[in-house]
Amino acid sequence: MSVRGRDSLGGRAAIAGIGATEFSKDSGRSELKLAVEAVRAALDDAGLTPGDVDGMVTFTMDTSPEIAVAQAAGMGELGFFARVHYGGGAACATVMQAAMAVATGVAEVVVCYRAFNERSGRRFGAGVQQREPSAEGAALGVNLPSGLLTPASWVAMSAQRYLYAYGLEASVFGHVAVADRKHAATNPAAYFYGKPITLAEHAASRWIVEPLRLLDCCQETDGGSAIVVTSVERARDLRHPPVVVRAAAQGAGRAQEQMTSYYRQDRDLAGLPEMGVVARQLWRTSGLGPGDVDVAVLYDHFTPFVLMQLEEFGFCGRGEAGDFAAGGGLEAGGAGCRLPVNTHGGQLGEAYLHGMNGIAEGVRQVRGTAVNQVGGVAHALVTAGTGVPTSGLILGAG
Questions:
Q1: Element (H, E) at 146
Q2: DSSP β-ladder status, 212-213 and 295-297
Q3: I want to staple 90 with a disulfide (CB 3.0 to 4.6 A). Which of 84, 241, 364, 392 is the partner?
Q4: Domains recognised in the chain with CATH numbers
Q5: What value does the CA radius of gyration of the chain take, rounded to a whole number of Å?
Q6: CA 99 – CA 235 distance, rounded (Å)
Q7: Helix, strand, coil percentages in the chain from 3-state DSSP, rounded to 5
Q8: Residue 256 — very low, low, confident or very high, per pLDDT cuts 50/70/90?
Q9: How far is 219 from 344, CA to CA, in rounded Å?
Q10: Could you tell me the CA-to-CA distances from 148 to 164, 209, 339 in Å, in that order?
């Protein structure tokens, strides 16, 4: 791996607008309509119009093409459009692509979006049933142990190894679930608004795939979310103070597969090497470290991967994240809080939007407008999906 100093991207682009639809289990409308609603809401938040947009970025798994969204939203000419691979791992990378386009002058206003009917339509939690002939399908066919066909079953393999490697019990995962649901309970936008849980309730929830219980697994959600990225200078003239992209990174580990990296060596199975790549890049290019982060939004499709991320970013040592999270260690405003995490409720508590709603929460925390606001936020860490090639952001005040 090459050794680099600070990059030329940090501080040259900012998030100026965020928007979303409601989060539900049955939206009653098309994914294209959800995308357009979210995009328009984000532009309105920024004080911009569809005619100001000249760039679009989304996920390869999105069913609403950039051009279709642009037309339906009333945009004009586009000079930049892109898609990022690997499901939830793409979330922060959409902002990274937008920031690079803005920093290089390729585009002036770029909208990142994600919209799906993931509960009432295609449910990603159902896993692999049929695949069209492709390199991706062939790789899955080779690497999937017999019978393990769902995301929960894939993550359970890594989670079991994590527990074994460090002599832990599955109850350690409950600290993440309880913190997320505590934050969701006070967030009116969250699906689980007003519904906190206890460690006892986590332990009593039914097994999905050992060592994962129901309350270790994220929701399936209908909805859309969008982010507006522009230059820091332009953002300063808009409705909200700019939230600056201090650093952005993507990462894939050695022997990386898509949530099925079972053949990596030894301790790698009890960690997330791809997020380690992202962490090293973010720290190196920003000049910051774990002690500079005031709040974190860590991708929480499954609770074990939140603990592993804490370790990959150096907030605690290997195998120590359970103790780090215990006693309210992740809960905003608590006496035992070590690092406020997923203050919107995360994907377990607010909504599963492949991490785009997590980026919006990072923006709100830096703006000072979050429902569970952490005091004096100078830097927010946001991560994307784990177990796949992934991405991350450090956001700061402008």
A1: none
A2: unpaired
A3: 84
A4: 14-122+217-397 (3.40.47.10)
A5: 19
A6: 13
A7: 40, 15, 45
A8: confident
A9: 14
A10: 20, 10, 34
Q: Are 341 and 298 in contact (CB under 8 A)?
A: yes
Residue 164 φ then ψ, to 5°: -65, -45
Token pair 């709100």 is at which residue?
A: 364
The reported pLDDT for the residue numbered 121 is 75
Tell the residue number behind the tokens 């079972």, with chain if given: 262
Helix (H, G, I), strand (E, B) or coil at 394: strand
387-397 residue pLDDT tens: 999 999 999 99
Residues forming the active site: 299, 352
Q: At 126, is the pLDDT very low, low, confident or very high (cuts 50, 70, 90)?
A: low
The string of pLDDT tens digits covering residues 194-215 is: 999 999 999 999 999 999 999 9
Tally DSSP H helices, then E strands, for the chain.
13, 11
Residue 152 CB partners (closer than 8 Å, separation 6+):
125, 208, 209, 212, 217, 302
Average pLDDT, the chain: 93
Using an 8 Å Cβ cutoff, are 168 and 331 in contact?
Answer: no
Contact 247, 286 (CB under 8 A): yes
